[in-house]
Amino acid sequence: MRRTVYNEDHEAFRETIRAFIEAEVVPVYDEWFAAGQAPRDFYYKLAELGIFGIEVPEEYGGAGEESFKFEAVLYEETARAGISFGGSGVHVLLCLPYLKAYATEEQKKRWLPDFVSGKSMYAIAMTEPGTGSDLAGMKTTAKLSEDGTHYVLNGAKTFITGGVHADKVIVCARTDAPKPDDRRHGISLLVVDTKSEGYSVGRKLDKLGLKVSDTAELAFVDVKVPVEDLLGEENKGFSYLGQNLPQERLGIAVGAYAQAAAAVRFAQQYTQDRTVFGKTVASFQNTKFELAACKAEVDAAEAVCDRAIEALDAGELTPAEAASAKLFCTEVAHRVIDRCLQLHGGYGFMNEYPIARLYTDNRVNRIYGGTSEVMKSIIAKSMGL
Ligand SMILES: Cc1cc2nc3c(=O)[nH]c(=O)nc-3n(C[C@H](O)[C@H](O)[C@H](O)COP(=O)(O)OP(=O)(O)OC[C@H]3O[C@@H](n4cnc5c(N)ncnc54)[C@H](O)[C@@H]3O)c2cc1C
């Protein structure tokens, strides 16, 4: 089916990104994979390309684009190539919407130019060792000092993408106790400078997939955060998280759909080249049926993504619809990539083949940004169940 979601500008951007990936990422990707992260300098190259500023208003150095579509093209192209841009994905997808929506004019002037230039890389820290899905259970605290000039931050976070390289982290912390009838009350968002005294980066975590993305533990011991760095209103952080998670979830859905599409392409190429029993693997009826079934699932996921992207741009994508898109696309990708890996035989298990990396990179899509079970809970609630 012809896609109508993108126009000529998006397709021109796609060509630029594709050429950039071929020239700047593919030749060095094995080194990044072995090192377990993309080099910090690479983020300056992304900044030079204008990636970080696409959706930043022009007065702060960005391109002022309101649409999510350029970002979606980016996810499609990185997935298509079987690569990732490291921990920098959260900089734009997760962190920028908070800065745009809740930062004051003074904060935007202070933060956004460095955000665009890559001088300040952002991460977001919600998850703690003791709580992930149940964010209202977080224990990290930020107590206002007696003179009211700063918060004193104490606690620990884990699984923080971009946590090693980050210059600023949007930390979710308790500034007040939960109310008996509202567990979500009392959470605030603070933009924490990672050079602050008492702030430390713990282990860079060794993961099953997403090898080039730095995922870290963070610890805070009496970190002083100026009150000027509170993002939005005190104690309202939970509702801010709820408002921004749909975009994050759609980004994951688009990335997963594109990984599945890439897997079908890789498997088709591979099975057409590989000969067994004197025939190409692609000539077996089983291979044709497998690839055809996978293609049908990818087409369905593409249609879901395209409708959701339009809905997000129109300001109409509900949390339940975003959860539905994430659940569907990530589950499709899981099935499709596994079947495509199977068609590669033993070579599919080798990291030098992109299908192996897609397999391990994709696995986390059903976990982060909210697990598939949490997505089902959100959808069920919207059905009145
Ligand atoms: C690679 C990676 C990168 C990440 N990056 C970030 C990041 O940048 N910032 C950040 O803050 N977090 C990040 N996370 C954390 C991620 O969002 C959490 O891992 C995720 O939300 C799940 O939380 P948890 O790991 O504590 O699992 P748990 O909440 O302990 O869940 C364990 C199991 O219980 C199930 N479960 C939980 N609640 C329910 C329920 N109500 N009904 C039924 N089943 C339920 C879950 O679905 C899961 O199967 C990242 C995680 C990973 C793996």
Automatic annotation (TrEMBL):
Per UniProt, which keywords does this protein have?
FAD, Flavoprotein, Oxidoreductase
Where do the Acyl-CoA dehydrogenase/oxidase C-terminal domain residues begin and end?
Answer: 235-383
Q: Which InterPro entries match?
A: Acyl-CoA_DH_CS, Acyl-CoA_Oxase/DH_mid-dom, Acyl-CoA_Oxase/DH_mid-dom_sf, AcylCo_DH-like_C, AcylCo_DH/oxidase_C, AcylCoA_DH/ox_N, AcylCoA_DH/ox_N_sf, AcylCoA_DH/oxidase_NM_dom_sf
User: PROSITE patterns per the record?
Assistant: ACYL_COA_DH_2
Please report the stretch or stretches of sequence annotated as the Acyl-CoA dehydrogenase/oxidase N-terminal domain. 7-119
Q: Which cofactor does it need?
A: FAD
Which SUPFAM superfamilies does this entry report, sorted A to Z? Acyl-CoA dehydrogenase C-terminal domain-like, Acyl-CoA dehydrogenase NM domain-like
Which residues does the UniProt record annotate as the domain Acyl-CoA oxidase/dehydrogenase middle?
Answer: 123-223
Task: Tell me the Pfam families matching this sequence.
Answer: Acyl-CoA_dh_1, Acyl-CoA_dh_M, Acyl-CoA_dh_N
Q: Belongs to which family?
A: Belongs to the acyl-CoA dehydrogenase family.
Q: What is this protein called?
A: Acyl-CoA dehydrogenase family protein
Q: What is the lineage of its organism?
A: Bacteria, Bacillati, Actinomycetota, Actinomycetes, Kitasatosporales
